[in-house]
Amino acid sequence: MSSAPNPPQFPPRPTSLAWSLLREVIRKGDTVIDATAGNGHDTVFLAECVGPSGKVLAFDVQAAAILASSKRVAEQGHEKVVHFHLCSHDRMGEFAAPSSISAIMFNLGYLPGEDHQITTRTSETLKALEAAEFLLTKGGCLSIVCYPGHEAGAEEAQGVGHWLSNKTNNGWRVANYSMLGTLRPAPFLLMARKE
Ligand code: SAM
Q1: Is the pLDDT of residue 7 over 90?
Q2: CA 2 to centroid of ligand 1, rounded, Å
Q3: Which of 13, 17, 57, 61 to mutate to test the pocket of ligand 1 (most atoms within 8 A of CB)?
Q4: How far apart are CA 124 and CA 147, in angstroms?
Q5: Cβ–Cβ contacts within 10 Å for residue 91, how many?
Q6: pTM over 0.90
Q7: Over the stretch 63-105, which tens digit does the pLDDT of each residue have?
Q8: Residue with CA closest to ligand 1 atom 19
Q9: Which residue minimizes the CA distance to atom 12 of ligand 1?
Q10: Which atom from ligand 1 is nearest to the alpha carbon of 124?
Q11: Of all atoms in ligand 1, which is nearest to the CA of residue 62?
């Protein structure tokens, strides 16, 4: 007798939820940004969304992350679509025109299995969000996965939440998708649309 297939994780992980929501927003031919390339899972997802006529700008401060993500991108045949930048995401404004980007993904924190000291930091993340606001089209979306389970991550999550809450006064639509009743603060997803 064959066993039943594994059911999908419920509730979905913040990273999977970000993909489901962004898939509805990104169109073929769009230009989008992966602000934290890491191992390239999100970069490949974005390249699939925009297709061969689109463009993905991918940022990371670690050469090892750029190497890992470019390998994954090439294995999936998306190397012509993705442009890697070995620099902090707070410089993203140097690489795209204002109001030209339909979606920007941030998956904060550090690379699992690598040096935990090389992590996103509140001050740079907030600068990058300022740049992101400038680059997003009207109707463009931000997805931000936050990791409040470690001290620096908790401070960063709070800073990002505060920054986005203020944007609701300027017409942005902002949502927070988080777990209830976990033993430790669990990763959560912030989604925002610039109206
Ligand atoms: N999105 C990735 C994936 O799909 O595999 C995972 C990203 S990982 C959780 C966070 C990444 O952010 C790390 O690779 C780290 O090097 C990178 N990072 C840290 N500070 C950064 C910064 N200022 N600018 C860009 N990337 C940064």
Answers
A1: no
A2: 40
A3: 61
A4: 16
A5: 14
A6: yes
A7: 999 999 999 999 999 999 999 999 999 999 999 999 999 999 9
A8: 120
A9: 36
A10: 23
A11: 16
Nearest ligand 1 atom to the CA of 38 is 14
DSSP state of 94: G
The pLDDT tens digits of the residues spanning 124-143 come to 999 999 999 999 999 999 99
pLDDT in tens, 145-187: 999 998 899 999 999 999 999 999 888 999 999 999 999 999 9
Which residues contact ligand 1 via a Cβ below 6 A? 36, 38-42, 59-62, 65, 88-89, 107, 109-111, 118-120, 124
Q: What are phi and psi of 36, to 5 degrees?
A: -140, 85
Residues β-bridged to residue 106: 144
Concatenate the DSSP letters of all residues of 55-110 into one string: EEEEEES-HHHHHHHHHHHHHTT-TTTEEEEES-GGGGGGSS-TT-EEEEEEE-SB
Closest by alpha carbon to 154, among 119, 194, 128? 119
What phi-psi label fits residue 179: left (phi over 0), alpha (psi between -120 and 50 degrees) or beta?
A: beta
